[in-house]
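[Meeting: bench + compute handoff]

Bench side (C.D.) handed over the final construct sequence. Compute side (W.E.) agreed to return the predicted structure before the next meeting so the bench team could plan truncations. Sequence as handed over:
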Amino acid sequence: MKLSEVLRNIPFEIVQGDLNVEVNGIHIDSRQVKDGDIFVAVKGTNVDGHNFIEKALSQGAKAIILSNPDGIPASNATIVKVDDTEAWVGQAATNFYGDPTSHLKLVGVTGTNGKTTIATVLYQMFLALGHKVGLCSTVCNYINERAVPTEHTTPDPITLNRLLAEMVADGCEYAFMECSSHAIHQRRIGGLHFAGGIFTNLTRDHLDYHKTFENYRDAKKAFFDYLPKTSFAITNADDKNGMVMVQNTQAQVKTYSTRTAADIKGKILEESIEGMLLDIDGIEVSVRFVGRFNVSNLLAVYGAACALGKDKQEVLRVLSNLQPVNGRFEAIRSPKGFSAVIDYAHTPDALENVLTAINEIVKNGKVITVCGAGGNRDKGKRPLMAKEAVRQSDRVIITSDNPRFEEPQDIIQDMLNGLDNNEMQRVISIADRREAIRTAAMMAQPGDIILVAGKGHEPYQEIKGVKHHFDDHEEVRKAFGLE
C-alpha cells in the first residue's frame, strides 16, 4: 500500500520524502517495526513514541508519522506531521487495513458494569442465529469460534483494526465490542464505523486515570457524541446518566428499563440461583441468568438484536438457551448444601448489584462474601467496597485480589478503614486468597451462599509484575471437595 492511501482523510504536512512510497505494515511500538513499515510516534500516558523514532528508523521504518519533528535523526524515510498522532492513528490504521468496519455491522458497548456480559451474549446470540460473528472483550476476542487472547478491554487501534480485518476476511457479518473509557479517551476506536452503541450504567471507576467522575462520564459520552445518524443508541433509563449519554447523539435512541417508562421494558416474575423467569415486552421468557442487573443486561441485548433487524420472538427463544458469561454470576453447588457465586465485581456498584441479587434468592441461609481490591488502581473505592460488602453480607472475608506492586496488607487496611467498630465484628481479613476461600467454605452451612468477588474470569493473580496461576473456580471446587 502507498503511504498516501494510509493518510486518506487525515490532515497532514510533509516534512520530507515521498508519499508514493510503498509501506508493508504500521506500528506504534518501535520494537515491532520491520523493514518497509510505518512508525506512528504516539505520545501516550506513560511513554512518548517520539523518543523511539531513532530505534524505528534503525529497524527499517520507511515512513514516520509524528506530531513533533524537532530533533529527529537524519534519514531517507518519509516524515509526515499531524497535529495529534493519538487522534489520527486510528484513522491511519483503518485506512491501512482496508476500512474493515465498512464491511461489517459493529456494535460498541460502554459503561462501568455489564459490558462483557452484553457484548458476549450478543456474540453468542448471533452465532446461534447462524451468522459469522466477531467479539472484542475483556475475557477474550473471538473470530467466529476461534479464540484470540486479549490483553486489554479494547486493544490499541492498530491491533484492533488488524483484528477487525481478520474478522472481515473470515466472513464475519457482525462484531460486538466492549469500549472502555480509556479506549474512547485515547481515541483507540477512532476511524471505526459503528452500527450502534449501548450504554449500561455509570458508577465510580478508573478515577486513578480520569481523576474526576465528570471526566470519566464525559469519556463515555464522547462515544455516543460521535455516532452517526444511521446508527442506533440504546441507553439505560434506570441510570441517572442514561439520558446524559445520548443528549448530543445523532443516533436513533431507544431506552430500556426494569423500573420506569421505556421503549424496552423487563421485570422478574420468578428467580432462583439457577435463573429467572422474566417478562420482556409482555412476553414471558425463562433465562439462566440471575439478578436485576442481568435483567438490564438482557434488555440491552434484546434491544440491540431487534435494532439489527432480528425477530423479537426468535431473539427471546435464543436468549432462553444462552449461558452466563465466564466469571459473571457463575454458581457452583457444594455437596453439603451451600453454594458459591463467582463474579468479576470489583467496584462498589458491581458488589451492590451482585449482593442484592444473592440476597433476593437466598432463602433461610446466610451470605458470606470474599472480596479484595486491585493494587495500583483507584484507592478511593476500597473503603466503599468493604462498606458495601458488610452492608449486604452476614460475614465478610477481606482478602487479596491482584495486588500488583502494592503490599496486599496495605490494600486490605485501606478497605478496613471504611468500617466502624460495629461493622468490624462481622469481618476477618486473610491475605492469602486461597485460604480465604477455604475459610468461607468451612464457615458455610446448608442454604448459605458464598460470593467470591473481584477476579471472575481471570485465571491469575498479578503480584510484583508477575502473573501467577490462580483461578477462583478451581479454588472453590477444591474447597467444596469437588476436585
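W.E. noted at the follow-up: The radius of gyration is 24 Å. C.D. will use this when planning the next construct.
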